[in-house]
Amino acid sequence: MDEFHTICSVLTLESIECPVRYRIVQSIFEGGMGIVYEAEQHGANEFVKRVAIKVIRQSFANQKLFIENFIGEAKLVADLIHTNIVQTYHPGKTERGEYFICMELIRGANLEQFTNKVSEQNRQLPKELAVFIASRVARGLAYAHAKTDVEGKPLGIVHRDVNLKNIMIAFEGDVKLMDFGIAKARGLLQDQEGEVVAGKVDYMSPEQCDFQITDKRSDLFSVGVVLAQQLMGYNIFKGASMKESRDRIMNLEVPNFCELDERIDEPLNAILQKCLKRDLSERYPNADELLHDLEHYIYHAGYGPTNETMGRFIRQLFGQVDHQQIQQKRGHTVRLGRTVGPQ
Q1: What is the pLDDT tens value at each position of the chain, 343 positions in all?
Q2: Could you give the residue ranges of the DSSP H alpha helices within the chain?
Q3: C-alpha span between 234 and 219 (Å, rounded)
């Protein structure tokens, strides 16, 4: 009995405290509010894990509301564990007062870089892959929109910034939604919705542009814009200025996409039309229904694109595997060189 109690006392812990050390490898993205680095996380017994570190610029670190939202984002996303959402591990603060978030490192490119590469090579993204990308984003949103707290109460998450820069495609073919920095969620983020417009104007919903309170349907309009752009090669709402883009989102007549691209048939046009309805009662009510229609479109015949299909395309696009290798070595292992994260 004494031996049993001795073992239990050893195994029962109240807390574990240990410092986590990161070694910066390289800068992989620089934005107005911060810099994202590729880093090595070092642990016991020479453990090393590659991660991404998002560090906030010092000019923003002194703004109380900004830091509250930065920490709120970390708290929100850390509990969003889904294959189509970039995983956040934890926030931190350096001895010099710099705030950072440690995240999953994605070897690949964001959708803007991907789209530019397709254009540079005078190529056209296969229709099925465009729908596949949108379906993976919808899958991630369906999970986030349905997320609850520990007591089972809905968090009411709305991303509010679904655009090409916030969608990552890994060289393995995974599609992941990232950057919930301006998302809204009950109790986790300070929000000025209705007073301030947040997000990238070219992809906003009409209600977001109009300073209205948004719900999950706002994100689905943005998915429709992304899908249309991947199919058409351009964003139909993008104007010469932010004001013009806003005016187009609010007033531009949504075209019949069948007339703009012969690859778009009526079922796909119907999906786009339903995503881009300005009347909320006519738009998709939730991401699950959009996901169902997208997946039915590409898989109803029994076979459609997979992560492997997407991975082959993006590796080929970025010059990691040439066209002949893909045809000749199908079914065999292809050794890839060291990849560099998004710039």
Answers
A1: 555 454 444 556 778 777 788 999 999 888 777 899 999 999 888 899 999 998 888 777 777 877 877 777 777 778 899 999 999 888 888 888 888 989 999 999 999 999 999 999 999 999 999 999 999 999 999 999 999 888 888 888 999 999 999 999 999 999 999 987 666 555 444 555 444 455 689 999 999 999 898 999 999 999 999 999 999 999 999 999 999 999 999 999 999 999 999 999 999 999 999 999 999 999 999 999 999 999 999 999 988 999 999 999 999 999 975 443 433 333 333 343 444 444 4
A2: 2-11, 58-61, 64-78, 111-120, 127-145, 206-209, 216-232, 242-251, 266-275, 287-299, 307-317, 323-328
A3: 19
Question: Which residues on neighbouring strands pair with residue 88, listed in sequence order?
Answer: 103
Tokens of 121: 């090579």
Q: Which residues pair with 22 in a beta bridge?
A: 41
For the record, the structure tokens of 21 come out as 């050390």
Task: Please name every residue paired with 301 in a beta bridge, in sequence order, or none if there are none.
Answer: none
Name the class of domain 21-103: alpha beta
Note if 219 is an active site residue.
no
One-letter amino acid for residue 295 of the chain = E
E-strand stretches of 69-112: 88-93, 99-103, 108-110
User: What Cα–Cα distance (Å) separates residue 212 from each residue in 73, 194, 196, 264?
Assistant: 22, 5, 10, 32
Strands 108-110 and 88-93: unpaired
Catalytic residue, candidates 2, 79, 149, 161? 161
**CA gap 230, 166 in Å, rounded:** 15
Q: How many CB atoms lie within 10 A of CB 343?
A: 10
Domain assignments of the chain as residue spans, ordered by start:
21-103, 108-307
Sign of CA dihedral 35, 40, 42, 47: positive
d(CA 305, CA 53): 32
Which amino acid is located at 271 in the chain? Answer: I
Report the topology of domain 108-307.
Transferase(Phosphotransferase); domain 1 (1.10.510)
